[in-house]
Amino acid sequence: MNTGNMQRVVVIGNGMVGYKFCEKLVAKQKNGQRFSLTVFGEEPRVAYDRVHLSAYFADKTADELTLAPESWYAENGIQLYLTDPVVDIDRERREVRSHHGLVVPYDYLVLATGSGAFVPPVAGVEKDGVFVYRTIEDLDLIQSYARRARKGAVMGGGLLGLEAAKALLDLGLEEAHIIEFAPRLMPRQIDDAGSGVLQRQLESLGLTIHLSKNTQQITGEDTIRGIQFADGSILDVDMLIISAGIRPRDELAKASGLDTHPRGGILVDNFLQTSDPTVFAIGECAVAHHMIYGLVAPGYDMAEVVAARLMGEEKEFKPYDMSTKLKLIGTDVGSFGDPFISEPTGRTITYENKAKGIYKRINITPDGKTLLGGILVGDAEQYHMLLQTCKNKTVLPPNPEDLILGSRGGEATSAGGVMGLPDDALICSCEALTKAQLCHEIGENGHTSIDALKKATKACTGCGGCTPLVKDLIQGVLKQQGHYIRNVLCEHLDYTRQELLDLVKINHLKTFDEVLDKFGQGDGCEVCKPAVASLLASLWNENILEQGRATIQDSNDRFLANIQKGGTYSVVPRIPGGEITPDKLIVIGQVAKKYGLYTKITGGQRIDLFGAHVGDLPLIWEELINAGFESGHAYGKSLRTVKSCVGNTWCRFGVQDSVSFAIEVEDRYKGVRSPHKLKSGVSGCIRECAEAQSKDFGIIATEKGWNLYVGGNGGSKPQHAQLLASDVDKETCIRYIDRFLMFYIKTADPLTRTATWLNKMEGGMTYLKAVVVDDVLGIGADLEREMQLLVDTFKCEWKEVVDNPELRKRFTHFVNVPELKDPTVEFATLRDQKRAKEWK
Amino acid sequence: MEALIADKDEITWFLACRVEDVPADGGACVLLNGHQIAIYNFARRGEWYATDNECPHRQQMALSRGMIGSQGDEPKVACPFHKKTFSLRSGQCLNDESYQITTFPVKVTDGMVYIGLE
User: Fold this and answer.
1) CB of A405 closer than 8 Å to CB of A374
2) Is B70's CB within 8 Å of A551's CB?
3) Tens digits of per-residue pLDDT, A92-109?
4) Is A521 helix (H, G, I), strand (E, B) or coil?
5) Does the keyword Magnesium apply (chain B) (predicted)?
6) Nearest residue in A to B73, CA atom
7) Residues 6 or more apart from A495 whose CB is under 8 A from it?
8) Residue of A nearest to B62 (CA)
9) Cα-atom radius of gyration of chain A, to the nearest Å?
10) Which of A329, A346, A446, A710 could be stapled to A363 by a disulfide with Cβ–Cβ 3.0 to 4.6 Å?
């Protein structure tokens, strides 16, 4: 590579922030390289994810923690020297010298030396069995030592200390202790009450917590034997991990005469420049805005600022929010904004549930308008919402306690949620991605999975804390779009089913062509045709095979029978309530024999006759109709059966006549076309033998009347129906069913069962009840009237076909040889009956 | 009712059925030379199409009972069994590249529908 006219940037340190700087600079000079990069790392491996270091004990390998493989550096022209720390900076000559004696000149120097573990000056820290928790090498040492240790302790009850304690548990030590100098755990993030809850959680997992403990010395000869505290007590341990804070690695900067903070850290300005304008410091080695930012997100931000400024962009490093959320040994802990502020500068709302191990605190302004900060222990689900509410100074709801308690009573508020945040709300703080940016990636660029977004934006790849929020965002955007896509019928009709139903009704349209001419484009398809067919039937209840409507029906509706394997059809006569006379049973038997049909009792208490040639259908039905049968609509998106138990006419437990009511209900709603099929059941007592609660609408007898349940489903996603009304009389029950069904017919998407419809309904059962029972929309009478129209105009479709030669003619396989049956239809024999030949 | 009309480019036209045998914007099946052929009366466009009646997906004689329509400008038929859709022009399956059906030329004269077979 020709580096002659390029400026040379040397990076000291190959940790997370050092790597991020390389990544940013590489990305920024994609369209023309201006800088050559040289990186020196002290550790033997390339930069890895130190935030998730503890995962190394659990399931991750060192490779999996690696941020980018060594090849990445080479591919991007970065000269990388590992196991070779820089030992000297000559700022006059602008060159660095490494431990191995390499001398590299620089135009700009970036110090990303990070921090080391702070080891307090306690006697005995040099003994065997005392460790720090910082690098993969540290973890390897701890791991191998832990094999012969029984009791372990961690000095420091902060974030990292608790992680280390978890590691001790994972490594199988019998005893694991946490020693904290302060009177509470995580003293910088949570308050005493939060610490109390956290402590109980940790103790329940077998950790022993020692608070307000001032370690005086570590006892033992060459090897640690115990810890002696200032109060005279002694804790016997075989090993100790010191996690008492970090110490910025500023020794190199100090030696080269750069300004450093008296308590450690390289002093930088808002642009991360040290006292030498050609030298920058980023990450945990830098002191910016009077503090050390010991989190990865602000470190990444620093990397971005320096990379941007080298490329001539205007950027500065602003004071950074130090909010954190993490999962500690299964317990969520979150701390955001100012977690400790209290009277008089803020008001505090707390919630504590000792039984569940939950503590929540929010601090709000005295006027109750904005959120200042808070603490979450045990349940941090609301963390990201609260953090954004806090950062964006969103005006709080009238009852700010709702933020941590959820709204109680009444309808849930739809405000809030990630979609309610302003566009510039920072979602991924590690990568500084706003809601608007992410929404754009999801919505416009089609990155609709976490993995795709990770690739495109690096969201969720840093601390990972934003993942739940990003997931919500994906769902939110998809919902916004998907709602649109799912609701609109297809490319031919740019309307939702509900909109179209209203339009068809108002314009009094009766055929598909009229609908398409007026509201659509193209020629229709297998999606919009049956959808329109269904709503035409729901509105006008005219024969579905007339006026050119036959060819817009789904195949089953078109032939008023269910197509089966091999191309034959099945025939299901209606047997209301499952009640049938012996004579009718005999007719079914005779018809089946005559036309060679396989017979089976269905799940809905009726009889299915399989294997009918299309040409035989009118003949079969003619015989059935003459015997008093009607179409069972097994082929339609309409009422199938109303299953019943025998009820109090025979059953010694029954309290009502369930069969009579089932027949009444089935006769009432038979033939009503709906967005999807409808099933019902009536049980004569609480034993529920008709399984009414698994139906779209189910009725169960009580001593006083009937209980009505709606929205149940069997099938692949079984769901119990929910109680809509209890102890109502028959008339009221029917009225509610009228309203419920008509409301469903008018508002559901195509091919949506009542259960799904109800699940998606905003306000759910509460709302449905308000509409159907309380008639809050004032449409109850209309719904009843519309249903009554359908009931009054019912005609048996099969009777109409049987009686109409023109319609009958369509039931033939070959139009040029009407008497010939499809010769390719083949059957096999099974248990003395026929079955369809298996298809290939 | 088979009638043969020889055409100059070696297509033999077979009388298939009457126009009214095929419902408007729907299909019907005819048996020609022992071959099941689906004929579609695409009335909305004033066009006629003919294809194999067999859907190659599960070898079901069902395409004539399928719903016809369009995808963009492409006229298509959807098999009633598993909704495989085929272009009525090319026979190419539109939602599964591995399937293809044969299409046949159609001629309508004096209320009669003719299918061209090679």
Assistant:
1) no
2) no
3) 999 999 999 999 999 999
4) coil
5) no
6) A522
7) A488, A489, A503, A519
8) A567
9) 37
10) A346
d(Cα A643, Cα A684) in Å, to the nearest integer? 11
Portions of chain A given CATH number 3.50.50.60: 7-116+248-310, 119-244
Which of B:8-37 have CB within 8 Å of A? 16-17, 21-26, 28-32, 36
Candidates A521, A523, A544, A820, partner chain B, best to mutate (most B CBs within 10 A): A523
Q: What is the ipTM of this complex?
A: 0.91
Contact B62 A563 (CB under 8 A): yes
Residue B5 touches chain A, beta carbons under 8 Å: no
A719-729: per-residue pLDDT in tens?
999 999 999 99
For residue B1, is pLDDT > 70?
no
Residues of chain A with pLDDT under 50: 1-2, 407-416, 483-486
Contact A563 B28 (CB under 8 A): no
Domains along chain B with CATH numbers:
18-102 (2.102.10.10)
What is residue B85's predicted lDDT score, i.e. its pLDDT?
A: 92
Searching chain A, which residue's CA lies closest to the CA of residue B15? A816
pLDDT for the residue B5: 56
SS3 A607: strand
Instruction: Specify the CATH superfamily of domain A119-244.
Output: FAD/NAD(P)-binding domain (3.50.50.60)
Q: Under CATH, which number does the domain A657-809 receive?
A: 3.30.413.10
Distance from CA of B81 to the nearest CA of A (A): 8
The per-residue pLDDT for A89 is 96
